[in-house]
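Handout, section 4.2: multi-component inputs.
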Amino acid sequence: MSELTTTLTPPPSPADASHGVVAHTISATKVYGHDETEVRALDDVTIGFGRHRFTAIMGPSGSGKSTLMHCVAGLDTLTSGAAYIGDVELGSLSDKALTLLRREQVGFVFQAFNLVPTLSARDNIVLPLRLGGRAPDADWFDTVISTVGLGDRLTHRPSELSGGQQQRVAVARALVTQPEVVFADEPTGNLDSRSGAAVLGFMRSSVDELGQSIVMVTHDPLAASHAHTVVFLRDGRVVDGLDDPTPERVLDVMRGLGD
Amino acid sequence: MTKLAFQNLWAHKRRLLGTFLAVLLGVSFLSGTLVLGDTLRSNFTTLFDDALAGTDVVVRPAPLEGSSGDDNEDGFGQTLDASVIDEVAAVDGVRVAHGQIGGIAQILDADGERLGGEGPPTLGGNWIDDEDLNPYTLAEGRAPGSTEEVVIDQRSATDGDLSVGDTTTVLVPDPITVTITGIATFGSEDSFGSVTYVGFTDEGAAKHLAGGDGSVSEVLVAADEGVSQADLAERITAAVGDGTTGSETEVITGEALAAENLDSLNADFLGFLTNFLVVFAAIALLVGTFSIYNTFSIVVAQRSREAALLRAIGATRRQVLTATLAEAFAIGLTASVLGLFVGLGFATALKAMFDAFGFGLPTGGLSFEMSTVVIGLIVGVVVTMLAAVVPARRASRIAPVEALRSSEVEPTTVPRRRTISGVVLTLLGLTAIVVAALARPDNQLWYAGIGALVTLIGMVVLGPAVAKPISKVLGSPFSRLGGVTGELATGNALRNPRRTASTAAALMVGVSVVVLFSTVIASAAASVETMVERSFGGDLVVSTGGFGTAVMPPSIVDQAENLDSVDAAVGLGFGTLVLDDPTDNSLDVSVTDPAAIADMFDLGDIEGSMADVTGDHIAISQEESEDHGWVIGDTVTATYPDGAAAELEVVAIYEHEDIAGSSATARDTWQPHDPQSGDSLLFVTASGSVDAARHDVETLTAPLGNPEVQDEQEYSDSVAAQLNQLLGLITVMLALAIIIAVMGIANTLALSVHERTRELGLLRSVGSTRRQVKRMVRWEAMIISTFGTAGGIGLGIVLGWGLVQAAFGDSENSAFALPVPQLVTIVVVGIAVGVIAALRPARRAAKMAILDAIAA
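Output:
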């Protein structure tokens, strides 16, 4: 049990608040349907995600973990409350502004289908930059590429890469714009444990060595154990948190949540 | 399984909308043309039956040996001596027999302009005061009482602002001043179709239409009560069977004559019109077939896992195949049924269009016949199922294990074999076209036609193989200007070359036909221009009269020549001689002043002398000389339009046919045998100012209904304008095929967008704006449409060239011309097609909610 659940007063301070937060929500509430069919996917969630931190969001199915990530990432809108990336309140942005924000300040890694099949690995990585008409920063690009460790496979199409390689390309794509924050949704859900570990290791090192900030949704305790901090959701509320997690400790908390 | 097919159908109704519309439009066009054909046939049948309703028997001159029995253009054929009327009247069972005199009589309206003549003829005849024999009924006024009094039809009276008691001019072709004593209706109609009618007295008709020699065109007979048509015809044949005064008689019942008239209309006008329309319906259906094939291919691919699952749980291949075909059947049937009804609207629209383009078609309700229903349904269902067979077989071949994979069954690679056969077919087809165009074997049009078909098939087969490199080239400007969005659009066009190629193929077929027609018509216009440029000798030309309308009286030539501002004038009329030659039984004759025409025009090399063509002499073209083996001094044995024998000695042979035609004879030689003959064209050379001559000639010819007076450029332009009008009509007819192709592209795109939902979601989440997504879809559509347009233009030009060379390459004025303005328009339209086709799919792609897309 960390102090996280007890220190949720704005400005929110996560476990290690020395670098502030890259994204946060205030009283974030998301309701689907109405009357009898009403489902509160998020119920008054106030939380911050630390800069230069790798944060995992965990919880049983239907706990609202994906909804939280989608809303903070600007892919979905809140019913009430507010979500911020940096100082920018997402609810006030137009679709165009949100798109540009995603393009420039947010990186995404999805569970599957992360890459455009008609583009090579390299073109996929630089896609967000080129959509904005920007040229990649050569040093940073080299750094990212060398960390991905794809070498000569960069000219290959996604269909010619293994699942693990595809996910590493996706992470590189998420990092190439030097975004404020990278959101990853079950990035290793489709991978075997070895490929998964490689991807997670790469994500962790991008935080530790390259100074990125990552928020990852997962249901896998092993994956969560790569993070600096784990937050637990149930029934749309943040119910627990854990710093420097190990798989066993994560599993314990999850059991306590009744998953 | 059938139940599953219908559930599938319902579940995917949006996706199959494109197929549905393609079938619907194709079938409605087809049924529209059939309905129009049936409607016209039924209207004409009513008209023709009415025209002869009370006439039981007709006695007419027997057709000449070797002649097809058709009336020639200017005269109304042979005549009967009036004495035959009394002979017929004396036959037992004849209530009344009346000689009928028919000819051309064109009415001038209150403003002195010609009425009618836009297709249907302008007829004149004698007003028969017998309700049975005369299909016209007086609505107003009285029958004519003197040679200068007439009855006219109600429509002409209305259109020409003419009333009973008015005085107007009728061209026969001499302008005669007449008083209108009555206005008649044709049964319950205002006129006999769009035919204008002038009824003279017997004496008036004899004087004005028949040269006043007392002969009649035919004898109309009404039977006594209780005498059948067949009996009466037999009795009359017995009485007059053998000929009188040189022309044999023929006896025919009214019913048989009505049927005969209708048959000849069917064979010529209606047959042509129906075939003409069916060709366009077939093109629309062909284009539709591509769209249907494409939709089914994509839908089957998208449902491959479902098919595999069915196979895994025990469905046989046949069951999967049947389910897909059942779907095609259901779509084909539903769309065809609806198409039949929409076809009624098409028929109305087509008729309106033909009326707008100047065809005078009779009015009347639409005939929706069983045959239309049967043909429409069969064609619609068969086309849909044929187009669905290949995708359906593909679906049935899916291995059950595919259910566990996410791969698509729609093949994206192009087998080598296919590329090779595409190249071979295309080359074979092109070779046939080139052979037809340049070597011109006897059956060159067959070569050209089969070559065209084989080339088209070859290009369709080859399409997927060339789709990749061509899309790359077409996409490069987008990539260069549009950055990564352009690259993505190009990549999307490339990723499934088969889909891209068959989508483009639909447009290619449509565009190639448009280009083919444009090229042929541009070449025809160029040929006319060459001809006019080379042969136009005078300064001005006055032109009148097409089929069945009044020409200019021959006396106009002398009157024109007497004008101070005119140096020389030559008239040119047209007639036909019937030859006693079973393979080539008619000879077109230019009736003119042969010496003068040789002076004013360049007839090329002349053997003998045109000045000698007087009396029983004739001049012929080199081509006719070669065809018939006639040389100077030979005698051409033929029959004049009035049935008199002609023995004409060849005294001159000229090179160029473009003005003088196949043969030429003197006006004085011809006129006695064709009393209503006159000049269709009058060529004038000015003595000084052309404008002065034009003014004087216009004044001179004004009483003839203000015929057009044109200089060389105007004449050439007016011919080109007529050709362009034809091209306009054809283009309108082809628009439907293009619309179906557009819908095909739109449908393919919509399906692709649907298929790439997650990819679009990804693009949006990594920062593609809605605009960029829209652009990507639009550019992909533009690549496809430009691909199809380019293929169509290339194919169309080659086919057009082949056709022009094959059909007219041996003619001295033949010219091949590219329809440059039309080609530019087609390119622009081709690109616009992409933009239009992408409208909806692009909007849908851009509107897609990101979360739904990535979760899909």
